[in-house]
Write a structure and sequence with these properties.
HTH_MetabolicPath_Reg; six-stranded antiparallel β-sheet; 2 domains; Beta-Lactamase; PcaR_PcaU; transcription regulation; 9 helices; Arc Repressor Mutant, subunit A; three-stranded antiparallel β-sheet; alpha+beta; DNA-binding transcription factor activity; WH_DNA-bd_sf
Amino acid sequence: MQAPAQPPENKPGDSYVQSFARGLEVIRSFSAEQPVQTLSEVAAQTGLTRAGARRILLTLQTLGYVHSDGKHFRLTARILDLGYAYLSSQPIWNLASPLMEALSEKVQESCSAGVLDGLDVVYVVRVHAHKIMSTNLGVGSRLPAFWTSMGRMLLAGLPQAQLLQLLAECPRVAYTRHTLVEDADLLRAIAQVREQGWALINQELEEGLISVAAPLINAQGQTVGAINVSGQVNRTNAQEMESRILPHLLSTAQSVSQLLRTTRQ
């Protein structure tokens, strides 16, 4: 279960609207594990008083973002408007989708695009070819950056000081027997990604899952996103990922990057 987001320790004085931050915490308390909650559960999840949680939930209900049967609360489809505001303000992802669909059809594997948000990769485009994980992925899904191909690609594009700060904050979980958990191993792997210009993750996040990612680079030469191709090792091993899929992925990433450099954002 994902812990509710906490407000930053250093609040920027009077410009910090605490009630708004608490409202976002309430929204984030709903998840696949807890899609329906009581008032008490929301309060416990967010650290709010029952009275404070009630005021926020009723406000969200009035605005149409929450539905209640009198005891239980759940988010409504209107909450998607908040995420769509980001996607609609970034036309590059709509332009990238046809290129990614063509890539997925060519290699017969799933293709995704993502951006870095703290310690996570957030999926902003997803083209399905096969069900490859025990958890369904879609737009808005989050995965740990240090153990995903897009994540390592994006981390490799950061200044070293920022990378080291994120590494220091990152909790270590041995998702599989292949997961790298030591600082030296992770830094070595990211340095290799930085040098070669692509990232391959072989069963570090989930047994049987393999993926390769390439960077999306803006006009300033910054890595602002990544796209990947994912598959199963019993169908596509690491050697085939590099020899058959990687050239097509790199070509598509270059095409998307060109759109990124020429499209007004």
